[in-house]
Amino acid sequence: MDDTARRDDDPVIALALPAAPLSDAMAAYFAKCDEKLGFVPNVLRAYAFDMAKLEAFVAVYNDLMLAASGLTKLEREMIAVAVSSHNRCYYCLVAHGAAVRALSGDPVLGEQMVTNYRAARLSPRQRAMLDFAVKLTESPWTVADEDRAGLRAVGFSDRDIWDIAAVAAFFNMTNRLASATDMRPNPEYHAQAR
Amino acid sequence: MDDTARRDDDPVIALALPAAPLSDAMAAYFAKCDEKLGFVPNVLRAYAFDMAKLEAFVAVYNDLMLAASGLTKLEREMIAVAVSSHNRCYYCLVAHGAAVRALSGDPVLGEQMVTNYRAARLSPRQRAMLDFAVKLTESPWTVADEDRAGLRAVGFSDRDIWDIAAVAAFFNMTNRLASATDMRPNPEYHAQAR
Amino acid sequence: MDDTARRDDDPVIALALPAAPLSDAMAAYFAKCDEKLGFVPNVLRAYAFDMAKLEAFVAVYNDLMLAASGLTKLEREMIAVAVSSHNRCYYCLVAHGAAVRALSGDPVLGEQMVTNYRAARLSPRQRAMLDFAVKLTESPWTVADEDRAGLRAVGFSDRDIWDIAAVAAFFNMTNRLASATDMRPNPEYHAQAR
Amino acid sequence: MDDTARRDDDPVIALALPAAPLSDAMAAYFAKCDEKLGFVPNVLRAYAFDMAKLEAFVAVYNDLMLAASGLTKLEREMIAVAVSSHNRCYYCLVAHGAAVRALSGDPVLGEQMVTNYRAARLSPRQRAMLDFAVKLTESPWTVADEDRAGLRAVGFSDRDIWDIAAVAAFFNMTNRLASATDMRPNPEYHAQAR
Amino acid sequence: MDDTARRDDDPVIALALPAAPLSDAMAAYFAKCDEKLGFVPNVLRAYAFDMAKLEAFVAVYNDLMLAASGLTKLEREMIAVAVSSHNRCYYCLVAHGAAVRALSGDPVLGEQMVTNYRAARLSPRQRAMLDFAVKLTESPWTVADEDRAGLRAVGFSDRDIWDIAAVAAFFNMTNRLASATDMRPNPEYHAQAR
Amino acid sequence: MDDTARRDDDPVIALALPAAPLSDAMAAYFAKCDEKLGFVPNVLRAYAFDMAKLEAFVAVYNDLMLAASGLTKLEREMIAVAVSSHNRCYYCLVAHGAAVRALSGDPVLGEQMVTNYRAARLSPRQRAMLDFAVKLTESPWTVADEDRAGLRAVGFSDRDIWDIAAVAAFFNMTNRLASATDMRPNPEYHAQAR
Predict the structure, then answer these.
(1) DSSP-derived 3-state class of residue A189
(2) Does B123 contact A94 at a Cβ distance shorter than 8 Å?
């Protein structure tokens, strides 16, 4: 099957953007990734042609996915994957599908988020969260007071609604940056937490 | 994560259809599945409420996916998964995603077919094959002579074109039967050939 | 109007697939078609390049459309045409539109199924049946428990739901095979039961 | 099949709009319709609640479909039906499908326009005409200089392009008025020119 | 910014259709436009290659937008703009966006109709009116009794429903004629009533 | 027209998120906005419930829209508006439509970007830039090597392609955050640079 196999020497993205020297902060951050994950996620290497862009991206990402929130880290990753599935983003589905599997300890849940979140047996709260995220992805111009009221009705606070929206919106950005640049996921993700 | 975990006692489909006694042919076929795969695929158990329907389904399926063809078995599974991805069919993506991984020995290829076949590094022949299958899935009314000519231009015979169309068309059927009945894949598929 | 007229010498499909010798069973079946209908439906002639494929198709088709079911034969044909209308399948609309007219004795009903089933004055039961079939055709990934509950609420059994789904799914297959091969309907259908 | 049969006493539209007294011009026009067709088309009866609206509609319609043009009357009806098929307009498909059959003497052509104009064997000129009309119907915001150039390349003059656009645009209006009011076609159309 | 600036010498439409001599009625009408607006709207100049077409268009337009109706003139313009926004029609959004601003004295309302009518703070009556108009624009084949009932529930009469439908349908026509011909709006509209 | 007028006391967003005390950096930034623009853009006030989120957003935004790039600031704003038009985002169309008018000195160009960028007379370079941005917005999963090659063919460098993609991707994020929260634009934008 030589002709369909992924070539290991594919560059991270399909644009020729030479890496800049890492700033101290970013060198430390890359080292920490390497230590914790065993590799530096390719999205970071993609941004590494420009330290200002890389640092701003990392700040937004870490605040969004790791800072305190009424949403668990797993829930934020579930939104990430459901949105990425709508947008059919190879990079994000591989990288964040692995995160859902790892955080939940449930490989089936990861595969459901990747293929069709509606197939998962979710609580009404989590189902409403993903329905909102995917509606916001598919037709943002139709989101209305009723949609926000629906989230409040299953127990989300206004701050939670911001966080759901912010995560969904963010992956609508990164999905498109990954697709525009043909970003390739690190091979390590594929077998994680299966 | 209790509330999102798949419940192991989910029935195969969401319709109450009591199994009929297996015919001799089907009992032998189920035994063969068990021996070769270690389980009977749930799609077969779903049809087992009626022997005439089960036998007809098995006959079509085996002819389509296993009989002699200008398409390899892997190529037929690639079509199955690319079509099922367009239709976001949880059952078929899990079951046939595993088949792509197993037949190719390439877990990455399986994941690419599931998420977005356009992300795979395919030969022009295989890319044209999947483009045709997905166009036929998405807007069959627009398929025209040019599309068939495009397949011939990369080396497919008219018989091959029939086979591409027949596999793509078949999974447009099974995707919908699985979605209509909320068919659940056998848990064994998830970890296969990762 | 020479340049728009259908050419009578159009082949059944746009692929060159020489007919195989008919098996005894298929020779008998073709003879029966000829006797009952006055012609052999072109979809059968399309499959006649391979007896295994033809026999499997006939088995599935006859079980689905003619075997015992909680759906009348007319209702199964109505589903066939509503689905084919969504998929804009010329072959199936001509052949099965004629069947709706013939089985109902109501040419108007046939034309409504072909153009827009929502224009027909249907019972709530039949309207729910076609709404389900068309939703399953258009966006199978969104079909959910509520949709099945809606069918039960108008009196369908779980077995009926399978049959609605199976007919709708089947025509999503044949519509695509017909479109992929540019299958031409027998001219006899056009004037039937008008 | 009582519950699906069209009720003969359905009103012309689903809005209660009492007919106004016909002006002399409209009385003469209705009489002429009756004499030529054997009935007054329901679209005219729908407008007959207000003579100013009826007269303006008749003026636009007759100029568009009957006045001198580089397009034949049949070609204008073909555009009408292809557009109405995209919009799934029951009224217009029945009424203008009959017109295509009558003007062409070719019932097959009528059925092709109703189901999927791409299935017809058309000259490149007529195919380009319908492709333009349907693109203008489906996504008018994408029509560009290339589309107009494509029409000129198959021999259409700028005046012809106006006429193609004007007929396609007009049926985008009447399709919507018919759908908004649930307009019912005169039963006489169904069997005409089959 | 030379390369993006609109060229002032752009013709009214992208088709070469020499103006016909104005009829007396149309000469008077153009003079009245000039006097009241300071210019002749380009849509009228576009039709001026043929007096029969121009006169019929003017009759329909003036009856629809200016004659007595249960809808205010502003409401009819709001429908015009919401429909034109769905169809992304540059000409109609510029010309009728200005009309909404002028008739309402509310530039914000004009901009909301142009960008997304759902962002406006509308009465339930006006919101239902625009929801109906846009649904009729987007998927006319799905409009049903429930939609008409919804309009009646917020106080619209059957005659009002006709008028909502007729205005929405009309702009589905003119949007497409403008797009097909690349019609350019008079520059005067841009700054009006800001 | 009281019932359609925008209420001046609408809150910035439809979520109750009390403002946090401004950090020194953000206090200085808000003061600078006030001085330069006469107001603080509401998107900044929306984020002001959390300084970490506000600072990260400002860092990304300023780098993207103001830092050195092969794209002019106007071109970046044109992408912002064309993307926001596809997503029908009221907030972004008002705020960035004003920016296009101000930076270009061309109110017509601003209105074209808001309504339909295809109506603008653009250089092939700028047209390709916007076509890519809108394709990436509409169907990111279909972006391929050909699309990147098309940008290179009109003179864009790989770094320019990143910047086009990054701006388009970013507004796919902010459009959704604005829609999810019903963000209201500052009233000052409406009349700017008309």
Answers:
(1) helix
(2) no
- Quickly count helices (H) and strands (E) in chain F: 9, 0
Average model confidence (pLDDT) for chain D? 95
The DSSP output letter for E133 is H
Backbone angles phi, psi at E3, to 5 degrees: -80, -10
DSSP label of B155? T
pLDDT digits (tens, 9 = 90+) for B130-147: 999 999 999 999 999 999
Q: What is the helix (H) or strand (E) element at residue D95, kind and residue range?
A: helix D90-104
- φ, ψ at F144 (rounded to 5°): -140, 175
Copy the structure tokens of residue B53.
């329907």
Within 10 angstroms of residue F121's Cβ, the number of other Cβ atoms is 16
Closest CA to C89 of B137, D130, D115: D115
Task: Decide: helix, strand or coil at residue F124.
Answer: helix
Q: What is the pLDDT of residue D9?
A: 57
Residue A3 has pLDDT above 50, yes or no: no
User: Do the chains contact at C162 and B169, CB–CB below 8 Å?
Assistant: no
Contact F141, A179 (CB under 8 A): yes
Strands, E assignment, D72-162:
none
Please count the other Cβ atoms lying within 10 Å of the Cβ belonging to residue B190.
Answer: 18
- Report whether pLDDT(C132) > 90: yes
pLDDT band at C10 (very low <50, low <70, confident <90, very high): confident
Minimal Cα–Cα distance from A7 to chain B, Å?
Answer: 8
Q: Tell me how far apart the 2 most distant CA atoms of chain A are, in Å.
A: 53
Q: What's the rounded mean pLDDT across residues B52-71?
A: 98
Measured between beta carbons, which residues in chain D are less than 8 angstroms from residue C88? 85, 115-116
Question: In this model, does residue A135 exceed pLDDT 90?
Answer: yes
Interface test with C, best of B145, B156, B162 (most C CBs within 10 A): B162
Closest CA to D17 of C118, C60, E2, E70: E70
Q: How far apart are CA F161 and CA F153, in angstroms?
A: 12
- C83-106 tens-digit pLDDT: 999 999 999 999 999 999 999 999
Q: Which two tokens stand for residue B152?
A: 């011939």
Q: How many Å apart are CA D157 and CA D73, to the nearest integer?
A: 17
Residue B140 to residue B133: CA distance in whole angstroms = 10
Closest chain B residue by Cα to residue A194: B191
> Is residue E64 within 8 Å of E166, Cβ to Cβ?
yes
Provide, as residue numbers in chain B, all residues whose Cβ is less than 8 Å from the Cβ of D116. 141
C93 → closest Cβ in D88, D115, D187: D115
pLDDT greater than 60 at residue B114:
yes
E10 pLDDT exceeds 80?
Answer: no
Nearest to C180 by CA among B103, D173, B146: B146
Other beta carbons less than 10 A from residue E188's beta carbon = 14
pLDDT at E4: 43
State phi, psi for C156 to the nearest 5 degrees. Answer: -80, 140
Q: What is the pLDDT of residues D82-119, one digit of tens each?
A: 999 999 999 999 999 999 999 999 999 999 999 999 99
Interface mutation target, options F179, F182, F184, chain A, most CBs of A under 10 Å: F179
Over residues D26-67, the pLDDT tens digits come to 999 999 999 999 999 999 999 999 999 999 999 999 999 999
Which residues have CB under 8 Å from B95's CB, separation 6+? B41, B43, B185, B186, B189
In angstroms, the CA C180 to CA B144 distance is 8
Amino acid making up residue B18: P
Give the length of chain D.
194
**C116 interaction partners in chain E (CB closer than 8 Å):** 141
- CB contact at 8 A, A5 and B105: no
The token duo for C88 is 């804009």
Q: Which residue in chain C has the smallest CA separation from D14?
A: C119
Q: What gap in Å lies between CA F52 and CA C117, rounded to an integer?
A: 55
